[in-house]
């Protein structure tokens, strides 16, 4: 059968990104072995929405969409900081492309204890892993990776608290944080690859739990799935004693991100579903530290 | 050209509903002339998502989808309690069907004054109008109509307020209310049709503003698009002095709905985006008063 | 601390449903051991959106929302036809309620072979399990369960094919099917409980794979995640040789559902994202066979 | 009352964007008087989702969110290429900020004739207008504007057509196009402002209808809301004779964008809801022509 995609194209236009999107796949998320913290989830089954693309040089009419899925099949759904580079490289090879990019978006669960009763339950966070690879034989590879977390939190309005006789309006807000890390790579196997070699115990790669903690610590209060009355009292009072505008949340998180030498770039936004309005307040900061 | 849809079907299965969905259309919403209240918006341009369907008798292979759009075109986008019956009847006639149903979902704006500063702005509500017509020459028509409003409000937790030393968690919640009314019809023109004839000044049809007011009065506090500091103080304190669980909101609204003789059936739900959890609390009541 | 929810309520209004919604939870879906077919996935890790509610009698001010989460915790995320009744009963006990209902919505993956190349990949379906329990000591329990599947398929328009010289418009459509089954229950453990006892090898409970197969067989063609050129040829031709309106799809599926004695009730809808329009065509049939 | 937002901040962190989002507002969209084409809609009532933000200098604790709404109120919902600069400037002045940005997203309707029957109906497109203003007394203003359109179209797969004996899979796809134009501004009033002065009859500003036409001409076939049988035949055959991968669509549109001297920058993406897969194929090109 004719390979229509492989035809020569004469429009002389390279395409920045061609690929597939909204491919849902069951995955096993594997934490880097060197990720710090005793509460890090080592392995977790979840479901990802996957996006994969390549740069299409001007001379080809089309890419071969089925090869994206074949590359995804090859990784057996095992997703980690160590496997992402090889999947990105695999896309580039299989599609014969100078650049390849991929992104996994998925719910990630943390087992969380209520602040007083210590009752446990699962809390969901929507997180992401993005990777891209570009290069050729002569120039070597340029690999990039971004880790993202979506962290629902509570914000309590400092103005409302200041001017009202009792109470203060508060609400659910979403912190979205994406970072680039100087120390990438995995260490999920013995060696951990080229990237793993650079790791030391004191400066391992950053993983979801650490970013989520930084975001929650920057809000008026964190959220929980299971709260008994004594916990609800605690959380209500914590938020009241810790009033924050979206401006305060984004700045306090920025202070933490600036103080973390492993983080080289970040983009953070806070969107607050104001409980006195039917619209949202938001604040955004993007910074390249290099 | 062959009319494939018009072919005889031998599977012997009538289809409850066949039609089109997600048809977006610019509309002019016209209030019933007898709708009470000085703040009723007489005419409003907005954009509806329209769903239209018919019952397809077992002997026909398919319906004629383009005729739904033609029927919609015929009403020139003028939507009111008076035009809905004729659109529904028009569908039934044009599609030669024993039953027809339609639904318009659209944003509806109310010009709202802040509680203290009296500054004005638009507040958006997602509302709906549903109508159905069934019948034949011998039996006459059975016409039904449902009016719906989605009303975002604030809920402030009575438990949190009771047990915390300061403050109380509160959040945005959505009240969804759909009603059937004994007094339907429009009176947007002189006669207003058969339904309009039944109207009196004291007991006109129920319109969006009235339902929205009933819903907002049942919450801890209403929402506003524009609030200055003195307004924010007022709203914060009003919510604090008026703590309500979703159970309280749904019951207080039910009391109002029960007390209104023009309402013969209602379905109400309250969904609260809890500011201490990443999930929602909800309560629902459905009641046929006849 | 005061139990505000437990206060006596004097509004004299029972609430049909009170509970929590959009609780995301990692689950392990376990097929009934007697589910027929060699391709049935015995166990599958996925992520559910959970809704849980109870009927609240008129005399109580509120329900205790944290107990829903505690009940969910107790099942350790193990979801099957055998565990659903006990979770529903657990809700009723824990919340001291005359009725309890719950619903799990989750992506479910089937390992699917391409029609010619036989290459394998995962295909995602959005499915659901609903259960409710009502009753008291004297009357015994009334338990109900509904199994649902969302099946994306291809529809190819018979009219377009008939009247056009070449080709025919086709598109992705979604079949949504929910059923009640005479033979419920699980048999995931030796006994399988009271429901399991009613099972026989020839007439086990209906599971997702079987419903998905019925839906796919009723469309112009099924969808696949991974197709090579020879597969694409096959699927394109299959759809062309098998033109179906949404009316045809819903009726052909209805024939299958009517012919299946284990199914006692069904609700089926087909929504087709017409490739020549920017709106959808749909058809719906609901039938109680008892 | 204390102005908490106006407090001095000592974290020394400017915030890139602070503002409000998802503010829904009724608007009147006014075309530039010089927009070419007889089918241009001169005025259209619709409903926008509005986002507005400013850069917050490091020394201020917060912005004053109510002033965004006040600025929006001031424009009386009249949105055009001529009013956008003044709204952006108004935001900057009212919020005392070095930069301000705003974005309106709204459904836009075009009255469209079916290709053969010439029957008319409304076709909806989701469009956007983005504007930003930065500057100070000494440097003058730097104003930027982006016009965006979302255009649903049909794509018919060239590979499927080539290899299948009959038919070819096709589907709905969405072209998203955003452009910067050398000739901005409005001319909706006599002078039209500084930008309007640069206009000539031969090279007026680009408006929605023109961009939508460019996108539709680049697809296998355009979509319509109302098609009779003769139209359906026409559209089916047009798509079959005009097979296009997403790569072809994005390139053919790029050729048009490159050939249009008024366009100085564009970002275009095509996302195709493949009718043989449950995922989407996509292609993206971004180019700065200056």
What features would you describe in this structure?
4 copies of one chain form a homotetramer. The first copy, chain A, has 290 residues and is α+β, with helices and mostly antiparallel strands. In chain A, 24% of the residues lie in helices and 39% in strands. The first copy, chain A, has helices at 65-74, 83-95, 158-163, 193-197, 208-217, 229-240, 246-259; strands at 15-30, 43-56, 78-79, 99-113, 120-136, 140-156, 170-181, 221-222, 263-272, 280-288. In chain A, strands 1, 2, 3, 4, 5, 6, 7, 8, 9 and 10 form a 10-stranded mixed β-sheet that branches. In chain A, helix 1 packs antiparallel against helix 2. The longest helix of chain A has 14 residues, at 246-259. The first copy, chain A, starts with 14 loop residues before the first strand and ends with a strand. Mean pLDDT of chain A is 92; it is low at 187-202. Chains in contact: A-B, A-C, A-D, B-C, B-D, C-D. The interface between A and D is large, with 46 and 47 residues.
Overall number of strands of chain A? 10
Terminus-to-terminus distance of chain A: 51 Å
Classification by helices and strands of chain A: alpha+beta
**Number of helical segments with 4 or more residues of chain A:** 7
Portion of residues in beta strands of chain A equals: 35-45%
Radius of gyration of chain A: 22 Å
**SSE string of chain A:** EEHEHEEEHEHHEHHEE
Which blocks of ≥5 consecutive residues of chain A have pLDDT under 50?
A: 187-202
Helix content of chain A: 10-25%
**Which sheet architecture does the biggest sheet of chain A show?**
10 strands, mixed
Mean pLDDT of chain A: 92
Question: Which oligomerization state do the chains in this entry correspond to?
Answer: homotetramer
């Amino acid at each position: 059968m004719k390979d229509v995609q492989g035809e020569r194209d004469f429009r002389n236009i390279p395409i920045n990104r061609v690929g597939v999107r909204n491919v849902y796949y069951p995955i096993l998320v594997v934490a880097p072995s060197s990720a710090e913290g005793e509460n890090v989830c080592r392995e977790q089954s979840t479901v990802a929405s996957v996006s994969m693309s390549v740069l299409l040089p001007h001379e080809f009419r089309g890419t071969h969409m089925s090869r994206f899925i074949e590359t995804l099949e090859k990784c057996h759904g095992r997703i980690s900081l160590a496997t992402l580079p090889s999947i990105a490289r695999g896309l580039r090879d299989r599609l014969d492309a100078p650049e390849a990019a991929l992104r996994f978006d998925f719910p990630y669960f943390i087992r969380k204890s209520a602040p007083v009763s210590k009752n446990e339950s699962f809390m969901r966070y929507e997180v992401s892993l993005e990777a891209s690879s570009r290069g050729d034989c002569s120039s070597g590879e340029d690999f990039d990776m971004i880790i993202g977390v979506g962290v629902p939190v509570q914000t309590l309005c400092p103005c409302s608290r200041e001017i009202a006789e009792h109470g203060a309006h508060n609400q659910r807000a979403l912190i979205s944080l994406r970072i680039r890390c100087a120390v990438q790579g995995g260490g999920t196997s013995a060696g951990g690859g080229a990237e793993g070699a650079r790791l030391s115990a004191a400066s391992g790669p950053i993983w979801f739990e650490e970013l989520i903690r930084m975001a929650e610590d920057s809000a008026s209060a964190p959220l929980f799935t299971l709260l008994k009355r004594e916990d609800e009292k605690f959380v209500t009072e914590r938020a009241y004693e810790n009033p924050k505008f979206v401006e305060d949340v984004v700045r306090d998180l920025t202070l933490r991100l600036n103080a973390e030498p492993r983080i080289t770039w970040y983009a953070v936004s806070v969107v607050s579903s104001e409980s006195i309005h039917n619209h949202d307040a938001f604040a955004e900061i993007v910074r390249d530290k290099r």
